[in-house]
């Protein structure tokens, strides 16, 4: 099996960045881009659906292996490669990391990214305008989710205790984008633990190589 991996997907994707962070934290060599075996893969093309039956990204290529879904990819990288552990050895602590990984990849992603952040990045209104009604509709759940994260962070430096984990790798890209959004300032004024957490994440060397300005074309 090769010592490096390839991540299929664009670098601005939050989930692609989560997989990058795991590779960077563990020192796993990787390449990144919308190619497989040197051939471009167009989003939602037959070639894409052959790799992921629901047409999502990222997709991890490791030798002849193909793996989909960010939590599964991150757990595989942690188990299959040397480097700092991204999951606790203690079963209860590991279960809590898994719990937060699932919550982040599902509910938190939907609230913060799909229903809120993407409206600013790829606005769907007439003439490419932000749909203010969509933003207003999303705001209550954004506030609720950030409140949940704020409460969780009161117990340690990271989402589960004082060690960086897969859960933090999934949280970091979406929160990094949110903190950089002027429209989110009112939310962030109510979540000082969360803002401090994002600064801790950004200060990590791995994050400095991943959480960069996106190239949106």
TrEMBL record:
Q: Where are the transmembrane segments?
A: none
Residue ranges of coiled coil: none
Q: Which organism is it from?
A: Halomonas koreensis
Q: Any idea where the GST N-terminal domain is?
A: 3-85
Name the chain's protein. Answer: Glutathione S-transferase family protein
Q: Which CDD domains match?
A: GST_C_family
InterPro entries, per database record = Glutathione-S-Trfase_C-like, Glutathione-S-Trfase_C_sf, Glutathione_S-Trfase, Glutathione_S-Trfase_N, GST_C, Thioredoxin-like_sf
Signal sequence coordinates: none
PROSITE patterns hit by this protein: GST_CTER, GST_NTER
GST C-terminal domain: which residues? 90-217
């Amino acid at each position: 099996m090769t010592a490096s991996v390839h991540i299929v997907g664009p670098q601005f994707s939050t989930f692609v960045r989560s997989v990058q962070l795991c590779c960077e934290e563990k020192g796993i060599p990787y390449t990144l881009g919308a190619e497989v075996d040197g051939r471009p893969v167009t989003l939602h093309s037959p070639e894409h659906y052959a790799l992921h039956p629901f047409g999502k990204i990222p997709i991890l290529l490791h030798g002849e292996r193909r793996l989909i879904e960010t939590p599964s990819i991150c757990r595989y990288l942690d188990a299959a490669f040397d480097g700092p552990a991204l999951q606790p050895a203690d079963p209860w602590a590991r279960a809590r990391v898994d719990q937060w990984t699932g919550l982040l990849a599902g509910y938190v992603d939907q609230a913060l990214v799909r229903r809120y952040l993407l409206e600013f990045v790829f606005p769907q209104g007439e003439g490419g305008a932000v749909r203010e009604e969509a933003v207003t509709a999303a705001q209550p759940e954004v506030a609720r989710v950030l409140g949940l994260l704020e409460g969780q962070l009161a117990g340690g430096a990271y989402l589960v205790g004082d060690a960086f984990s897969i859960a933090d790798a999934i949280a970091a890209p979406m929160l990094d984008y949110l903190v950089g959004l002027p429209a989110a300032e009112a939310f962030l004024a109510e979540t000082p633990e969360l803002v401090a957490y994002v600064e801790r994440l950004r200060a990590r060397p791995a994050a400095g190589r991943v959480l960069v300005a996106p190239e949106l074309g």
